[in-house]
Amino acid sequence: MPHIEFRGVSHAYGERRVLEGIDLELTQQRIGVVGANGSGKSTLARMVNGLVVPTDGTVLVDGLDTGKQGAAIRRRVGFVFPDPEAQIVMPTVAEDVEFSLRRTDLTQPQKSERVREVLERFSLGDHHDHPAHQLSSGQKQLLALASILVTEPAILVCDEPTTLLDLRHSRKVTQLLESLDQQVLLVTHHLDLLAGWERVVVIDEGRVVADGAAAEAISFYRRLMGA
Amino acid sequence: MLTGTYVPGRSLVHRATPGLKLVLLAVFLVPISIWQTPLLAGVSAAVVLVGFAVARIPLRYLLAELKPLRWFLAVLVPYQWWALGLEAALQLLVGLVISVAAASLVTLSTRVSDLLDTVQRGLQPLRRLGVDPDKVALTVSLALRAIPVVRDLLHQTLEARRARGLERSPRALATPLVIRTVRHAERVGEALAARGYDD
């Protein structure tokens, strides 16, 4: 499994400190991150892809410094955002998946075959040439996932990928995430989606306040939130 | 093009290279833009319709592509009539509809990515002048992708304005629409960076 390491990481947006003294080593295949709104969990997730570089400390992915080796990190770490609308950049479904392969050395037939395989796997095979904006929200999120996973990253970071989805599509996305060979870091408010995950990290006010097996960590988080 | 629709097929029109289609489109548009007679308009319209028949693209796709023109024409044609007379207004109307229909035949029968690859290759000689063809192609595709997104944002903002009983307030439309559009642009930029397109 890939090795993600946070060493003494703190971060501030201007005067507002959002993460404080984070030390974590993430080596499990299925890792959940939970926390209240504004707790700093999305910032933590963005650091794994190098989208946010910590103001103090370092984040390493398989020994690569996210602050210094951004391009190499982004080839290794795929990132899925809450709103798929912002991730889809091409007009049709197949074109958006193929867009991710633009900078690879694959030939056009190889790209087309890879796109076809991924769309079949994500139940989007019948929508190959459909305009992306005509898909349902759930299908758009599946397309966003397909467009990231077609490049076969070693790590997938998902920031609340089910927030805008109904229960059926939430289940579908979660089942897909659970079936992946990749290391998956999932930030979510949907605690039931993390049942059975190997490790769950609880963030509160920029600090790690619980870290362990899913059942214990989620139980702690429920108590913390007074639920 | 505005609807981002591609109608798959294996017709002669589909199989023609995007470069050839763009050149033919440019040649087709010149006469109808410069001088227009009823005969030329009729022949041009017939050529476009034959093109759709050969490509086996149902005319409902053409109508969907022409639909966004209606607001533009609703403003421009009366103005042209008032400024230059009925004949000039009709020429503008017919010329625009035929031109957009011809362009739609090209875009409906060609994947946007293939068109962009052609544009990208065509711009290669401009690299020496500092033009980055990759960035131009990406910018064009993002602009096309933004059309349905901004249209949806507009509808949502109009609904929100109506729900608050502020139908007559331009500020209640413009402010949230601009903020949401800029926020969307920021998110797209972040998503592109996450996919390695940040250089």
Automatic annotation (TrEMBL), chain A:
Keywords: ATP-binding, Nucleotide-binding, Transport. It comes from Arsenicicoccus piscis. The lineage of its organism: Bacteria, Bacillati, Actinomycetota, Actinomycetes, Micrococcales. This is ABC transporter ATPase. InterPro entries: AAA+_ATPase (IPR003593), ABC_transporter-like_ATP-bd (IPR003439), ABC_transporter-like_CS (IPR017871), ABC_transpr_CbiO/EcfA_su (IPR015856), ECF_ABC_transporter_ATP-bd (IPR050095), P-loop_NTPase (IPR027417). Belongs to the ABC transporter superfamily. Residues 4-227 form the ABC transporter domain. Signal peptide: none annotated. SMART domains: AAA (SM00382). Transmembrane segments: none annotated. The keyword RNA-binding does not apply. PROSITE patterns: ABC_TRANSPORTER_1, ABC_TRANSPORTER_2. SUPFAM superfamilies: P-loop containing nucleoside triphosphate hydrolases (SSF52540). It comes from the Bacteria. Coiled coil: none annotated.
UniProtKB/TrEMBL annotation, chain B:
It is a multi-pass membrane protein. The keyword Lipid biosynthesis does not apply. Coiled coil: none annotated. It comes from the Bacteria. Pfam families: CbiQ. Its main location: membrane. The chain crosses the membrane at residues 12-32, 39-59, 79-106. It is found in: Membrane. Keywords: Membrane, Transmembrane, Transmembrane helix. The keyword Cell inner membrane does not apply. This is Cobalt ABC transporter. The lineage of its organism: Bacteria, Bacillati, Actinomycetota, Actinomycetes, Micrococcales.
